[in-house]
């Protein structure tokens, strides 16, 4: 079966893509979400959205059908081999999730590995038992959707210059990318941001730092999982 990484350019191909996974009678089809099937996609996943949200869904979202019904959707993100998945209100268990992700991995990954982002609590709980967590996004405060941190700045903490992004209301700091896991540095950085009274602070961390971040009052926003092709 052919494998592709840059799925956002393959809407035409996926509109006619089918795949069979395992030995069971599970027949899946990938469709680019557009004006012709957006209503069906929203209905099947039980998504409650505004009219304005439909444009965002049609901009890069793919739906996966099983027996002519959308089972879940996925979207490519900025990084190669990274996608987010969404089952909506459909009932899922470990068996369903594993089969669906194996289908995606066989269909989309170019180098035998796919990174999947999950932000639904139930999906995260299931995937924690199935796959290796690569990194975790945690936050504290209230996320404001129209305030995206894009301006770059550096915080000097214990002789380290730590890059972060900020907006009027929010802070985002990727500790994973900067190989920072020292708890004292993270604690001081948390205090540094709290002093500025931002509405929300978000860190991307290694899994081993998760329990410490919870002690500081942070909650899980999303997790990224490594899906290796066996």
Report on this model:
The protein has helices at 11-14, 38-45, 51-58, 94-108, 121-128, 183-194, 210-215, and strands spanning 17-20, 27-32, 61-66, 69-76, 82-86, 113-118, 132-141, 151-157, 160-166, 170-174, 200-205, 219-228. The protein is globular and about 55 Å long. The longest helix is centred in the middle third of the chain and has 15 residues, at 94-108. Helix content is 27%, strand content 35%. The protein has 230 residues and is α+β, with helices and mostly antiparallel strands. It has a twelve-stranded mixed beta sheet with strand order 1-2-3-4-5-6-12-7-11-10-9-8, sandwiched between helices.
Radius of gyration based on Cα positions: 19 Å
Report the sheet with the most strands, covering strand number, pairing sense and barrel closure. Answer: 12 strands, mixed
Helix content: 25-40%
Ends apart, CA distance between termini = 15 Å
Number of strands: 12
Strand content: 25-35%
What topology, given as strand order, has the largest sheet?
A: 1-2-3-4-5-6-12-7-11-10-9-8
Unreliable residue stretches: 1-25
Provide tags for this entry.
globular; alpha+beta; 12 strands; 7 helices; twelve-stranded mixed sheet; 27% helix; 230 residues
Outline the secondary-structure elements.
Elements lengths: L10 H4 L2 E4 L6 E6 L5 H8 L5 H8 L2 E6 L2 E8 L5 E5 L7 H15 L4 E6 L2 H8 L3 E10 L9 E7 L2 E7 L3 E5 L8 H12 L5 E6 L4 H6 L3 E10 L2
Parallel strand pairs: 5-6, 10-11
Antiparallel strand pairs: 1-2, 2-3, 3-4, 4-5, 6-12, 7-11, 7-12, 8-9, 9-10
């Amino acid at each position: 079966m052919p494998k592709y990484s840059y799925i956002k350019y393959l809407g035409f191909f996926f509109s006619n893509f089918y795949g069979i996974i395992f030995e069971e009678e599970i027949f899946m089809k990938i469709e680019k979400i557009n004006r012709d099937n957006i209503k069906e996609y929203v209905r099947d996943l039980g998504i409650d959205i505004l009219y304005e949200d439909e444009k965002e869904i049609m901009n890069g979202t793919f739906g996966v059908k099983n027996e002519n019904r959308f089972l879940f959707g996925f979207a490519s993100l900025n990084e190669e081999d990274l996608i987010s998945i969404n089952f909506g209100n459909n009932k899922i268990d470990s068996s369903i999730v594993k089969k669906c992700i194996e289908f995606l991995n066989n269909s989309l990954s170019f180098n035998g590995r796919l990174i999947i982002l999950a932000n639904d609590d139930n999906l995260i709980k299931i995937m924690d038992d199935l796959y290796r967590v690569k990194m975790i996004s945690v936050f504290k405060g209230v996320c404001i959707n129209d305030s995206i941190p894009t301006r770059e700045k550096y915080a000097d903490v214990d002789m380290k210059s730590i890059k972060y992004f900020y907006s009027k209301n929010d802070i985002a700091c990727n500790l994973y990318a900067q190989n920072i896991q020292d708890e004292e540095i993270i604690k001081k950085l948390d205090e540094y941001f709290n002093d500025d009274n931002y509405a929300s602070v978000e860190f991307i961390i290694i899994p081993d730092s998760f329990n410490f971040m919870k002690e500081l009052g942070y909650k899980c926003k999303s997790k990224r999982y490594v899906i290796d092709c066996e």
